[in-house]
Design brief:
Elements: H1 8-26, H2 73-85, H3 87-107, E1 113-124, E2 137-138, E3 143-144, E4 147-161, H4 166-232, H5 238-273, H6 300-306, H7 308-329, E5 334-345, E6 357-366, H8 374-440, H9 446-451, H10 453-480
Antiparallel strand pairs: 1-4, 2-3, 4-5, 5-6
Organism: Paraburkholderia phymatum
Protein name: MdtP family multidrug efflux transporter outer membrane subunit
Length: about 500
């Protein structure tokens, strides 16, 4: 018990001087860091670039609301709904809220703690203990034992003095995790928006496929009827009729499969948006948009700032560095101050008198000397965990560059294939138009004119497939480039 009044002030000063001296003398005697390896190297900027042969006609990065470039109100409504109500995004935002609470919890460890205290103790004093004389009942001497009712009331306070920055490092690590979860939330939003767009345009592509198949089915049905009439009159063998029916049934099977594919896409879309059985509006057919894919001139560190998943890993790495700082600070002495001000008396009637005032100031020094290797094991484990995160980050960067390169290369190939397919359709359309002209002049039958459409329809189906693949790859490229996400400011690597 140290009183901060009168002569006690000098005693307090002497005590603080003793603590300071003990701190200086005890530093050489604290637990030692036996070994600590250097951090793993992070990926170099030269490895975050595309090969020279990968390029697209346009140049640039996706916009934040990249899906609005398609000018499709149905798509925009679906994505907005998914970003608002999807269970995955709700989970991600809840994790961010919990991380913020964890930051506040860690931050309170370095703040002043004040507690109100009230204690009532009815006790029987032992005649053979340290308070043995108080067990006697001699009122003249102020002894009214052996029963006493002790009362204590006042305020207690404690403060951890963060000399070596352990608390600051722990707070920084918690903030790093919180920032990582924020970036992960953006990654979930990007995943959701691109998945919704992929499914939506999968539905639209299949709508157009069904239209082409219906057109082909009309031709096949007419052919089957024509062959059936000829076979009935004995003008041709039944073989041609059965072949025509087989073709008609094959087209019908394709139509059934396509319609089922639409239902599958719709159910997947409903699950993504978090809608009920009847909660998803009808999706009306629209024309597929033209490709608007673009690749930036260079990637380098700009890709790291635009990919939310990479920013999340970057923040996890930064948090691991702060945990290493905290693990190192644990080797050094810690210092705290505890205090109490209030009243303490063996008799309740004396509790709130001036002479019952009590003041405690308790500075404490805690010096780790022998810990059985616990602190070194903790530092080693923290360092290895950080190195693991660095390697995961490096691999994620390489994967991101690979995703951009593969998607860009595939888009280039699809553009070339689409151009060739259009030329093929033009050639077949010329042959179709020629047969149609012969039919108009009475030089060919209607059946021949209709059957000439089938090769063109088949190639139009192939072109539609290419267009759908291009749109899908374009959305995949948007995702690979970060979908318009931009870290502000981007996390810069620390030297460790």
């Amino acid at each position: 018990m140290i009183a901060r009044s009168g002569p006690g002030v000098g005693l307090w000063r002497r005590c603080t001087q003793c603590v300071a001296c003990s701190l200086c003398i005890g530093l050489p005697g604290c637990a030692l860091i036996h070994h600590d390896s250097a951090p793993y190297a992070e990926i170099s900027p030269e490895q975050i670039n595309l090969a020279d042969h990968i390029h697209l006609a346009r140049d640039g990065w996706p916009a934040a609301r990249w899906w609005t470039r398609y000018r499709d109100e149905q798509l925009e409504a679906l994505i907005e709904r998914a970003l608002a109500d999807a269970p995955t995004i709700v989970i991600a935002r809840t994790r961010v809220a919990r991380a913020k609470s964890d930051v506040e919890l860690v931050r309170t460890g370095s703040s002043l703690q004040v507690t109100a205290l009230a204690l009532l103790d009815r006790e029987h004093v032992s005649a053979h203990g340290f308070l043995g004389p108080f067990a006697q009942n001699e009122p003249a001497l102020g002894l009214t034992g052996p029963w006493y009712t002790e009362g204590i009331v006042g305020l207690g306070a404690s403060l951890n003095v963060d000399i070596w920055g352990k608390q600051r490092a722990q707070i920084a690590a918690s903030l790093g995790v919180s920032n990582a979860l924020l970036a992960e939330t953006s990654a979930v939003e990007l995943e959701l928006s691109t998945d919704v767009a992929q499914l939506y345009y999968g539905i639209q592509t299949t709508y157009q496929l069904v239209d082409l198949l219906n057109e082909s089915h009309e031709v096949a049905a007419f052919a089957a009827q024509a062959h059936e009439a000829r076979a009935a009159r004995g003008l041709e063998a039944r073989t041609q009729l059965e072949e025509a029916r087989a073709q008609q049934l094959a087209i019908e099977r394709q139509i059934v499969s396509a319609q089922n594919q639409i239902r599958q896409f719709r159910e997947s879309l409903r699950a993504l948006a978090g809608a009920g059985p009847d909660g998803l509006p009808a999706i009306e057919p629209v024309a597929l948009p033209r490709s608007q894919a673009a690749l930036p001139a260079t990637l380098s560190y700009e890709l790291l700032a635009r990919r939310p998943d990479l920013q999340a890993l970057r923040w996890y790495v930064e948090a691991s560095f702060d945990r290493i700082d905290a693990a190192k600070a644990a080797f050094y002495p810690s210092f705290d101050i505890k205090a109490f001000f209030g009243y303490n008396a063996l008799h309740l009637s004396d509790l709130f008198t001036h002479t019952s005032q009590q003041i405690n100031l308790i500075p404490g020094l805690y010096l780790p000397i022998f810990d059985g290797g616990r602190l070194n094991a903790n530092l080693s484990g923290t360092r290895q965990g950080s190195n693991l995160l660095i390697e995961q980050y490096n691999q994620a960067v390489l994967n991101a560059v690979r995703d951009v390169a593969q998607t860009g290369s595939r888009l280039q190939a699809l553009e070339a294939e689409t151009g060739l397919q259009k030329q093929r359709i033009e050639s077949l359309a010329f042959a179709r138009d020629s047969v149609e002209a012969h039919y108009q002049r009475g030089l060919a039958s209607r059946l021949a004119a209709l059957e000439a459409r089938q090769p063109v329809i088949a190639e139009q189906v192939a072109l539609l497939t290419l267009n759908g693949q291009m749109l899908s790859q374009e959305i995949a490229l948007t995702k690979a480039l970060g979908g318009g996400y931009r870290a502000d400011p981007p996390v810069e690597p620390k030297s460790r």
